[in-house]
TrEMBL record:
Source superkingdom: Bacteria
Major enzyme class: isomerase
Protein name: DNA 3'-5' helicase
Reactions the enzyme catalyzes: ATP + H2O = ADP + phosphate + H(+); Couples ATP hydrolysis with the unwinding of duplex DNA by translocating in the 3'-5' direction
UniProt-listed InterPro entries: DNA_helicase_UvrD-like_C (IPR014017), DNA_helicase_UvrD/REP (IPR000212), P-loop_NTPase (IPR027417), UvrD-like_ATP-bd (IPR014016)
One MF annotation (Gene Ontology) recorded for this entry: helicase activity
Length: 588
């Protein structure tokens, strides 16, 4: 069966064609793959006798050349007269010539890494950053920076360096002396797999425990309980708080109460009513008079007591308990490395502070406030983690192209990001070393057209030489994700969940949340429509609380920003009807 692939050199030009010309081009490609080969005209006087032109739209033609077997390669699409002129100048190529991968361009020091297999690229540290990972610090250290600055790779190399150093200093003690922790399970598994590449010696690798922050808390508390603690999910927690608010006749929503509990009481570790009345409620816009604080305190006290009796916990509550347990015994680790630090709750930071003795190289913290997808506000200094004078702010991206950054950064809006020490964080001066094609934004008339367009675009990437596991497709909810997987599988493109670890010759498919912390060559985001993003459930969860509503919308902005910047080489975004209000309008 015939097939038509887009030549990598043409990808960038293809992005700038008018939508109707792009649609015509993709229709011709679909015809080739289905066996209905359009008429191809020979070009009189062409230097390559195999060159052909094929109509893609009125007065527009594509120039194609033989590739391998019954396959062809599309070199360009131009107005017919220009296409014929271009075709005459095409020089013959050996039929076994294969297109090169559409890698972005970068500085000389990265040229070898960019052309290496992608799994090697994923552990490649920029030469200038080795000093950060191998330095000796007199206390805790912090690294911040925007997407693509290499923060996660720095965390990986730092953990590996500490393990090697620990093996040299304590050869007789083979134990897990280094904790590498992060926010979710998918990223923890990815970090573990990549650490295996950096530490091939099993004796050294055994010195690093890679765990999510929640798994650390759970293991500590479980070691002091007869039965495993049972976690309550966010939906059930919100339902219970709504019932409490109604039954107690409080003039506050359930959403307000759960946030007050987690973001003030648990965050500050408040144990008594006088402490609560005196405390500063940073980030909580709604004022609470002392009499209202008494009401909230009594409600929370009864609610938490009932949870204790039932044996159910929330993750921040579990971390707070783990911090108390660790405070009464010897520290677990000699060093702790924290990735995605911006999303940790203060109770989780107190647990980490108790898990490692205060001293040289105790905590190494990596994060980006602009990628925060939680409401957690943290002041590291107030939690006994002093990074003053030992901070590094990264402003150079080498893992995301400038074109993707230019498109994605405005998604954050104008609201400043709060850093991990109550300071404002800015992306001023942030730029990339890589250049590539501009992101593509596709508006579709209905969901069926959106799925067809996605399938065509994934095929463009595959035909251009991108390995399936270098491609990720994501939607905001599981309903969209299921439609994506169904469409790609129907086209013969294997898929696996985006959190799948290890090598798999398949396109990764999942929700935007599942992309957090991961990296791919090409990313497609589907369903970025105004009726889906922000999702209705997120708006309703605010329960009319204006502050909660603003926070929910900002979380969606940051989530979309994070998802877009998971792509190194190319980004594709599609929507049905109007694009999401979070997206800066951008036509093809």
């Amino acid at each position: 069966m015939s097939a038509l692939a887009i030549a990598p050199a043409f990808l960038s030009d293809f992005n700038h064609l008018d939508p109707e010309i792009q649609l015509g081009t993709l229709s011709v490609m679909r015809a080739y793959s289905s066996g209905h080969t359009p008429d191809m005209e020979p070009v009189p006087g062409a230097a390559d006798p195999g060159v052909r032109v094929v109509g893609v739209a009125p007065d527009w033609s594509g120039v194609v050349v033989p590739d391998q077997d019954d396959h062809y390669r599309l070199l360009t699409v131009r107005p017919r007269a220009q296409a014929l002129e271009f075709a005459r100048g095409v020089l013959p190529e050996p039929l076994d010539a294969t297109p090169t991968d559409p890698t972005p361009t970068g500085p000389p020091e990265l040229s070898g890494a960019l052309s290496a297999p992608f799994d090697q690229w994923q552990v490649t540290l920029h030469p200038d950053q080795h000093r950060i990972t191998e330095a000796h610090y007199n206390g805790s250290a912090q690294v911040t920076g925007g997407p693509g600055t290499g923060k996660t790779v720095i965390a990986l190399h730092r953990a590996a360096h500490l393990a090697v150093r620990d093996a040299a200093a304590h050869p007789e003690q083979v134990r897990e002396s280094v904790l590498l922790t992060t926010y979710n399970r998918a990223l923890a598994q990815t970090l573990s797999d990549r650490l295996d590449q950096l530490l091939p010696d099993p004796a050294v690798r055994a010195r690093v425990r890679v765990h999510t922050i929640d798994a650390v808390a759970h293991s500590v508390v479980r070691s002091h309980m007869r039965t495993a603690p049972q976690l309550i999910d966010r939906d059930e927690l919100a339902r219970r708080w709504r019932a409490v608010a109604v039954s107690d006749g409080l003039p506050f929503s359930g959403r307000f109460l759960v946030d007050e509990w987690e973001q003030v009481l648990l965050a500050q570790g408040l144990e008594t009513l006088p402490d609560y009345i005196r405390c500063e409620r940073s980030g909580r816009v709604q004022h609470l008079a002392p009499e209202h604080r008494r009401q909230v305190w009594e409600t929370v006290r009864r609610f938490v007591g009932a949870m204790r009796v039932e044996g159910v916990w929330t993750h921040p509550q579990l971390a707070a308990e783990a911090a108390l347990i660790l405070g009464r015994r010897a520290p677990l680790f000699r060093h702790v490395v924290v990735d995605e630090a911006q999303d940790l709750h203060p109770a989780q930071w107190r647990m980490l502070r108790a898990a490692v003795p205060e001293g040289p190289d105790d905590l190494f913290v990596v994060g980006d406030p602009h990628q925060r997808v939680s409401d957690n506000r943290v002041s590291l200094a107030s939690l006994g983690i002093n990074v003053r004078g030992r901070g590094h702010r990264l402003r150079i991206s080498y893992r995301v192209t400038q074109e993707i950054l230019d498109w994605a950064t405005p998604l954050l809006g104008h609201r400043p990001a709060l850093g991990m020490d109550d300071d404002a964080d800015t992306l001023a001066g942030y730029r990339s070393l890589l250049r590539g094609p501009a992101p593509v934004v596709r508006g579709c008339s209905d969901p069926a057209e959106e799925m067809r367009a996605l399938g065509d675009w994934v095929r463009v990437w595959l035909e251009a030489g991108v390995a399936p596991d270098g491609i990720a497709v994501a939607g905001r909810n599981q309903w969209v994700v299921r439609k994506v997987a169904k469409e790609l599988e129907a086209r013969g493109v294997p898929t696996v969940p985006s959190e799948t670890s290890g090598r798999a010759d398949a396109v990764r498919v999942g929700t935007m949340h599942r992309l957090k912390g991961q990296e791919f060559r090409c990313v497609a985001l589907v369903g970025v429509s105004d009726h889906l993003l922000p999702p209705k459930a997120a708006i309703e969860a605010a329960e009319g609380d204006q502050v909660a509503l603003e926070q929910a919308v900002q979380r969606e902005r940051m989530l979309l920003f994070v998802a877009c910047t998971r792509a190194r080489d190319a980004l594709y975004v599609s929507h049905v009807g109007p694009a999401s209000r979070l997206v800066q309008p951008q036509a093809l």
